[in-house]
Design brief:
The chain is of the alpha+beta class. It has nine helices and eight strands. A four-stranded antiparallel β-sheet has the order 4-5-7-8, with no helix packed on it. Helix 8 packs antiparallel against helix 9. The chain starts with a helix and ends in a 9-residue tail after the last helix.
Length: 430
Amino acid sequence: MQTRFIMLGAAALSMPLLAVAAQPSDQQTISVTPRSYAPAPSTAAAVITLDEAIRLALASNPTLRSTTQSVAIADATRTQAGLRVNPELSVLREGMDRSNRTQTVQINQRLELGGKRSARVDVAEQERQVAVQDVAVAQAQLRADVTTLYFEALIAQERLELARASVQVAEKATLVASKRVTAGRISPIEQSRSRVAEAGVRLELAQASSEVSLARQRLAALWGRTDAIQLSLERPADDISALPPLDEVRRQLEAGPQLRRAREQVAREEAQVTLERAQRVPDLTVTLGSQRDNQIGHNQAVVGLSVPLPLFNRNQGNMLAALRRTDKARSDLDAEKLRVSQALNEAYQRAQVAQQEITSFTAEILPVAQTTYDAAVTGFEAGKFSFLDVLDAQRTLFQTRAQYLRALSDRYRSVADLGRYVQLRPGQNK
């Protein structure tokens, strides 16, 4: 546990650093330098905000790009569906002797009846709409994924800043303990504890550095990069404005991408039923041509009509399958409504709970923890408290700060999950 004690606070995102200045005597003075709750980003790396990360992912994510290609495929399918049937050219020759052979040249044109071509176009258009909604669903999911991984990387980055500051505190605390042991004011055991704690904090620093690298690499993968980004992340300004009422959010659910996609799938299957019904109408083939009889040297026109007789195959199997697929699509729509409604309720409740936690932390818990830590530092300066007392106060402050960051992260992730299903209007919530 003591390996975490120093990590737990001393220059936490909102925490002061202990600055120890060595004095000529054995007396050490430790000054407290206030810090803001948000750590300053590294000057060696550019800063990328959450909105910029989302825009970059929407522009470069390979999975989203693959999904978008489906729209172009559907456009090509729509073009093909609207084309008419090509005519057929046939040449017939009866007899091999030039003097008495008969040669027929004719063109056959199949005429689609029953509205088959328009029905094919409708099916292709509905497939395109399904592809468009697939893109909308993928975009909503990508936004939520970016938000989740962004905050994971951000928290890892802030813990790294904390670990670096804790190392500084541990070094100075070891120096203080050494001076006081030399002066005979404390037991050498206190110095040994400080050294052990310093070694533990250095291990925590190495672990935090590795966590930052992995978290940034996971985030960078969302825009197609395989290396860890050398960017500093920036925590958005706290937005604890109230969410719109749940009933108002639910009313927007019908316009969400998941339900729009499910409805488009129903429309697509209904269009397929119309096409299969049109396929039951036989097509008419018109034949126009010319026949020449070399024996008598006479040409005559050839005109013909042909139509298949629907005695056995009336497309009844395909028609029944299309009807069953339509029933299935409607059932899938009902199931999707239940799923997204439950997911929406859960995300909304998580966002509300996180919002209440944030309010409580910022209004009461964090200020009290900070005051307690400052008092422990002041007592340590005056020699009234041991270094372990400072570590205990640091632990409390860090745990409080970590809980605050988790609440803030939970709220952003919950709002991002809401964005999977509804589009919050500007002004309702950032």
